[in-house]
């Protein structure tokens, strides 16, 4: 990875990780629900790229906002993302025993603790935004409206429902898969970019452009994920490779083959880069967009 | 039940049920995530007393607010409560096959659909409040802050974590049980009353009194639940009786016996009624408080 991108990514990742610690640093030694906090922290602290917080911070910056203005939203999106990973890994869902190179939450704790840790990480984002001391009430409401609708039935949760049901379908085409991915992966990436704009007080036009950019990026991101599941190694990826094929999952690779899938990701990335021209100081976002397409992990 | 209470309760219940329908009436016939909406509606439409929305509406009224001002918060609390029922019933949690006289969500649908329907009903409340057209941004933020913290690790979800872990404990005393109940059941009852005050634009003093009242009511409510599990019938209760004993659960009845438990509920109810003296037009709330103590279902 380009060293400049790496250091900026690390700077943002450290910022969000410090804040995540702050929001979960309660002294619960004497409280009987301590296991719940432990399970939440276990999943939040697992190493990750923190892409969504990076997008929140960076869209806030390119729209002229301060980094602190984006702090609550950056934490909120990482919590909501972590909630979705915990619940998706449950035996009743994707039944994955590993996540980010470590045992999944329900393996490290119990299924009950994993369900509840996910539940709390689905709700805490709204508490954090509502209780933030920097943002105006109008900004908070706009953030919560966008975050909640992106997480919901027309967003991430709806996408996961489709993904679960697709397991028993044999008639999935590129359109179905694109719709599913735009919800399951795309919606949280979109709200990351849009929330960054909201934190900075950008106008609706900028937020709409951010949403369009994110739509392209999110889909390209998923296609690259599908490719890596076939071409990467467990060490590089931090999770088992070949799991899509093992689970007989329909992916962009099974539908299109690796070459066409990579071509689709290339095209989406070009379109995403073009939209970025509408933003000033976009050098990092351009590099990041290229980096996400060519990543090996 | 007193006919006046009954008709007021029914009026409020109809109001919240109409609004719940409105929020879930989307035409999803052609969308692949339709099962998720079906599972949500199935659980939301199950017959229930709708106590929490009634408290939202009524505290809004006694604080001088209009019924429409409380509509979003009343729906939000019922959704959040329904989310908790769906997840609590899961095999990994309390493993209950019946709820409100019908198969639990995960029995009527799948476990995956139940997890996701609960997830969506944990998040939709915040979307509904954020997108409400009547409330000011300041009121929305206050509602979301109170609702989210009441649902979280120091509230309902924390209480459920303790409840799950208590199953393997043999050293639970009245203090432990009271703490658990104040979180698991009490927190949502508290936020119902407090949100009613916020919707009406009441001051902090009134909201604090509402919270104190709710603390007493919530605990009394749980004690009566424990008593009914021993003394009621499946038909009256709409769920299996004797399930606490069957699961070897520590309850106020197992710790105190029926007579002392009833005495404790009586005392809490008296204290709750006294707090109600601080509110005008409190006739319905007084009747409701007495009714909840002497209920048979």
Question: How would you briefly describe this protein structure?
Answer:
Chain A has 14 helices and 2 strands, in the order H-H-H-H-E-E-H-H-H-H-H-H-H-H-H-H. With 297 residues, chain A is an all-alpha fold.
Largest interface: A-B, 57 and 57 residues
Major β-sheet strand ordering of chain A: 1-2
Distance between the ends of chain A: 11 Å
Overall, the morphology of chain A is globular
Structural class given helices, strands, pairing of chain A?
A: mainly alpha
Helicity range of chain A: over 70%
String of helices and strands of chain A? HHHHEEHHHHHHHHHH
Number of helices of chain A: 14
Strand content of chain A: under 5%
Radius of gyration of chain A: 18 Å
Uncertain runs of chain A with pLDDT below 50, 5 residues or more?
Answer: none
Number of strands of chain A: 2
Main β-sheet of chain A, in a few words? 2 strands, antiparallel
Oligomerization status of the protein chains: homodimer
* Average pLDDT over all residues of chain A: 93
């Amino acid at each position: 990875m380009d060293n400049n991108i790496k250091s900026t990514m690390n700077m943002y990742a450290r910022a969000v990780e410090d804040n995540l610690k702050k929001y979960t640093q309660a002294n619960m030694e004497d409280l009987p629900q301590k296991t719940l906090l432990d399970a939440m922290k276990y999943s939040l602290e697992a190493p990750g790229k923190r892409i969504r917080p990076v997008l929140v911070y960076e869209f806030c910056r390119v729209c002229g906002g301060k980094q602190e203005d984006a702090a609550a939203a950056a934490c909120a999106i990482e919590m909501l993302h972590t909630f979705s990973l915990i619940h998706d890994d449950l035996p009743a869902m994707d039944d994955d025993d590993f996540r980010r190179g470590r045992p999944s939450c329900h393996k490290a704790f119990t299924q009950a603790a994993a369900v509840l840790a996910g539940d709390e990480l689905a709700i805490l984002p709204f508490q954090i935004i509502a209780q933030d001391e920097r943002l105006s009430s109008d900004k908070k409401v706009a953030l919560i409206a966008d975050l909640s609708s992106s997480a919901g039935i027309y967003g991430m949760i709806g996408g996961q429902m489709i993904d679960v049901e697709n397991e028993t379908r044999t008639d999935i085409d590129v359109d179905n898969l694109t719709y599913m991915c735009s919800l399951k992966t795309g919606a949280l990436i979109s709200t990351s970019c849009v929330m960054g704009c909201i934190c900075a007080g950008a106008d609706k036009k900028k937020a709409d452009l951010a949403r369009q950019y994110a739509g392209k990026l999110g889909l390209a991101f998923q296609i690259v994920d599908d490719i890596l599941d076939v071409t990467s190694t467990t060490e590089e990826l931090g999770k088992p490779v070949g799991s899509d094929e093992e689970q007989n999952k329909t992916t962009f690779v099974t539908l299109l083959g690796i070459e066409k899938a990579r071509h689709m990701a290339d095209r989406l990335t070009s379109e995403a880069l073009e939209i970025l021209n509408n933003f000033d100081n976009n050098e990092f976002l351009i590099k990041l967009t290229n980096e996400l397409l060519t990543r090996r992990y």
